[in-house]
Amino acid sequence: MPIYSNCYPGCSNSANCLEYVKRNAERGNPASVINCIDEFASTNHMMNIGQVKGAVIDEEIRKKKPTVMAELGAYTGYSAVRFASLQREVAGNESHYYSFEYSPVFAARVREMVEIAGLTNQVTVYVGEFSEQYGVLRGKTVDFYFIDHEKTVYLSDLKLIISSETLAPGSIIAADNVVRPGAPDYLEFIENSPQFSTVRHTIKCGRDGKLLPDLSIATFLG
């Protein structure tokens, strides 16, 4: 099947991507789902973490072997499928991935994408603002947070994460797009906090391939 061309105004690339995956991916195969999304994204603008940045986070997941992961912002389900499948591989079937998505429309697509990938038992999707949903994580130690949602709430949600007592020494917080479009208040806080050790990865970003220190990886020190 051909990949959809760039959408006309008002058309949802997210919806078209899901349809493309339905037609072309092998059910129950997360790698096939990810490959299909990457194929679609090669000719259509998508707000996914993508292959290059995704590989950086993959390596962090392999090192950390997180039993509990949580993402803030799910969009079409690329990160949920990619990272949850790797989490299951390195941390076992008892591990779990919590996905928080503000939009009910996107959340429904994420659930469907997760089901196609065969990860329904691995991933739980919550709908609404993280500030209203994060209580489901109380009492758990979250080994790995991935933040990729509305940039203006990166800092406020980080502060919620800290106050929730879900972090333990060594917990990772990865945040995408900290330079473009940018979350300067988040960077100012986390890079100057004695509670974290932070590294920024310089990566080719966007269709222009500009090199930017756009992916932040912070380790909680306690």
From TrEMBL:
Membrane-crossing segments per the record: none
A UniProt-annotated Pfam family: Methyltransf_24
Keyword Methyltransferase among record annotations: yes
SUPFAM superfamilies: S-adenosyl-L-methionine-dependent methyltransferases
Keywords (A to Z) from UniProt: Catecholamine metabolism, Methyltransferase, S-adenosyl-L-methionine, Transferase
Top-level taxon: Eukaryota
InterPro entries linked: SAM-dependent_MTases_sf, SAM_O-MeTrfase
GO molecular function, one term: catechol O-methyltransferase activity
Protein EC: 2.1.1.6
Swiss-Prot/TrEMBL GO biological process terms: catecholamine metabolic process; methylation
Keyword Protease tagged: no
Family: Belongs to the class I-like SAM-binding methyltransferase superfamily. Cation-dependent O-methyltransferase family.
UniProt name for this protein: catechol O-methyltransferase
